[in-house]
Amino acid sequence: MGWRHIMITQPIKLSIKQQQLVIKQDVEVTVPLQDISTITLEHKQTIITQSVLSACASNRIALISCDNKKLPDGIFTSYHQHSRQLTVLNMQQSLSKPLKKRLWQQIVKQKIMNQANCLDSHGCEESSKLLSIARQVESGDTSNREGYAAKIYFPQLFGSSFTRRANDSRNRLLNYGYSIMRSTIARSLVAYGFTPCLGIHHDSQTNPFNLADDFMEVLRPLVDMHIVELPPNNWDVNTRASIVNLLNKEVEINGAMYVASSAADEMVKSFVAVCRQNDISYLKLLTIPRITVNEAI
Question: Is the model's pLDDT at 81 over the cut of 70?
């Protein structure tokens, strides 16, 4: 599996030669395709050959495009990466509503626990309260513990006046990081044959990545933990690169440590087992460990 996450921030040409990605500007650099997990295209004057698109599809490399504000706005993945696409689609469609509700319960519970670890890492007082809220999550989160936790979590982490809808520079950074996490989850889902628009909880008719939005919830606090340590109003290339590099941050699944992009694969792989066995006990969700503030940078 690839582990490199490449950002293109200058005018450049990308091509393929002997199973290597060729990055040509003033000098020419090559990277083995098998080492690459994602390529984020920020600069509008990036030239890509057709062979790059084909190689990305064949090697399960997520190609992420960005808009004029350098926020990710699209992802290119292979159309067929799984030998039994219809089989997996049938599994998705046959998931019962009670099982989906229990899956969402576990995702929300783990998300809130990860938020608690984030607060605890920064010495916030309400981390224990979030752990208590996590224990209250019901099947399908019918009492919206997720929303209740968010009302406590974000003001604790970013200040009492902060909201996710506020005109705050940190929201721009959060949106960037969430988009990167969403892209890596989408990449894993497609690799395992899932149809990303068929979600567990998210079900928007206009969202092609409902299922990715379900599973990325547990990764959001990883982004939050990093953004809170960044200087305000900082949108330079090094800041954005540090956010992309969160995909190499270590997280935990069942006591074993993985980088975040590998953990995404493990979660999706466990979802395959859940679908096949119709048993939620196979689900593996990542834990964001409590860390010291200095380690979050």
Answer: no
Last residue of a domain, one of 33, 57, 76: 76
Return d(Cα 127, Cα 120) in angstroms, integer.
5
Q: What is the pTM of this model?
A: 0.88
Considering the domain architecture, whether residues 135 and 53 belong to the same structural domain is answered as no
Among 21, 52, 76, give the residue marking a domain's end.
76
Q: Tokens for 261? A: 């992009």
Per DSSP, the three-state class of 231 is coil
Residue entry with tokens 């062979």:
51
Measure the CA–CA gap between 276 and 95, rounded to whole angstroms. 10
Number of domains within the chain: 2
- Could you give the residue ranges of the DSSP H alpha helices within the chain? 50-58, 85-93, 97-121, 127-134, 145-158, 169-191, 210-215, 220-227, 237-244, 260-277
Gap between the Cα atoms of 184 and 162, Å rounded: 27
Reported as a single tens digit per residue, the pLDDT across 231-248 is: 878 899 999 999 999 999
Tell which residue, 253, 170, 184, has the closest CA to residue 213. Answer: 184
